[in-house]
Give the backbone structure.
Amino acid sequence: MALAPRAIELCGTPCFAFSWSAVARAYQAVTMLATEGLPIRHWLSVKTQPLPCLLKCWRESQFGGVEVVSEFELLAALTAGYCPDDIVVNGVAKHHWLAAHRYPHLRVHYDSLDEVRTLADIGRQLEWRVGLRFSPQAERDPDEPDKPTQFGLDRVELAEATRFLLERNIEIYGVHFHLRTDVQTPACFDEAIRDTADACRCAAIEPRYLDCGGGLPASACARAEGSAGCHYPFDLSELKRIVQAIPSHLPSVREVWFENGRFMTARAGVLIIKVLDIKVRNGLRFLVCDGGRTNHAIVSDWETHELMTIPPRAGERQLTTVCGPTCMSYDRLGRFYLPRDVSVGDYVLWLDAGAYHLPWETRFSHGLAPVVWIDDDGVSRIVRARETFTEWWGHCSAGATA
């Protein structure tokens, strides 16, 4: 990222730098899914990068509304200026908190029968636009693909929820599914759409919209931009063909929704860390840095991201472990073949760090890292300062009594 030196100058390392222009490019790439007569509505997933400046830019650009899955995210969206009509409330067990926030005209997707029974009358009073989340066969546990996930209604529950709502004259506006993060091929969406359509016919639901959730991989954005490094054979033009066929499966559908987070923000962020020490053990090189997996990049446990160095190095390559500063062997960004001339004082850039890094970061005796936001005009500013010891310790001990 060309603006990384400015971020280092502003706040040192470790730090995150996020670029709005990269988010805007991702949005432009996904607009190609729309077709004449079947509009696509895009909702930004707040959990993916919960930054006020991102929500502000998304709202001012009029790209769409936002999707929230928790009480804090709902309050964040409202504080950022979104009206309830521009907010989709998803997530599990929200009947334990949503009733306390009686905003009219929210768009709410019920995830379970208990949610339906608990929130139905409240939603009718507040004129919520109601949808139901269905769990298609294609939605599987990522660690154990032979097992289902905990989300949504199965076919029997979908039919029961439908009867319960219609008996109370509550309209079902839409049906929602979400496969998982980082969906590998468009065929997964095709299977889920067909399964959802069949379940809707069995439950006698005629939804106005079909919400296909998120899950587009960041690599699909790379492919749309024409760059290398696409890990999966994911083709947006093939997904467009699948989306175009939705009315043939669900003739009542007038609009298709997506709620992508990773696709929109992953390539818009970078984690910048500094090499503090170097060790060699049995031919394996270790770069000990001031940032790593434990504090900043838990996704490195299952994802491999590209690295860059400042200054650029081009020496003979050696197997190298990039480690963080905490006393955990788990604290490493991964093993890479890096040039041997990477030295103490060099900076390492962990790319595609815009999705889920902030909500999953930890303090772990170091405090939260600063965040630099880069506007569309290239102006960089610190939007979150480095956490001080007083802030870190006060957070841990606030309200404690002797």
